[in-house]
Please model this.
Amino acid sequence: SYALFDGPRMVAHVGLSRLNLRIAGKEIRAAQLNGVACTPSERGRGYAGRLLNGVLRRYFGTPIFLFANKRVLDFYPKFGFTPRSMALPVAETVVDNPGLQPVKTGPDKLRKLASIRRQPSSIFAVNNDSELRSFHLYGDFADQLYLLAPGIAVAAEACGRTLKLHELFADRPVCWETLARLLPFSGIGRVEFGFCPDRLGVEFHWERAPETEHLFVRGNWTLPENFLIPEFSRS
Model:
């Protein structure tokens, strides 16, 4: 966490997470920025830009990415960031288990399991993101957590016939055939994944991802044509 102070007052902040990524089978060390902000009363004085430049100099040569909202899309290109588009992995497959009773669980019970990653994607995976995963457990997904079996859980929600499978937590490799029988949902004909599901053994295709978050990258990146940064690895 980096901050700029004017006397006793913090006027700007930049957060950074150092991450080990696996992209198209290759391991790289990178960083993700988050919490880039300036005190409202001090905006327009260049504080956020000054601090961001300092952080970028400190991590010169490190590939960096971040997610931005639409209000600041013109800000990050000034610092060498370029926009990139992600894709959404989708499977047209049936999940229909009307006899299963959903077993909802809470973040405290899944925190240890969430720190384990047993089958990282060969397309795009983040290998040391346990803190970020815990953040999401206690955040927006806290009421969407289901325990499917000992050592297997998901963050998921049904939207009509579409199942949004945000994340899979497992202490062992799991195939889609097994997972589909454990999911406590019925009438599903489409699954949208919040991570790259290439290790699940499910047939999927790529669609244009809704840009609710805008991805920017800086540095030397070699990204596949279709990829998705896992939802639980974003900050």
The two ends are 13 Å apart (CA to CA). The first helix runs from residue 47 to 58. The longest strand covers residues 9-23.
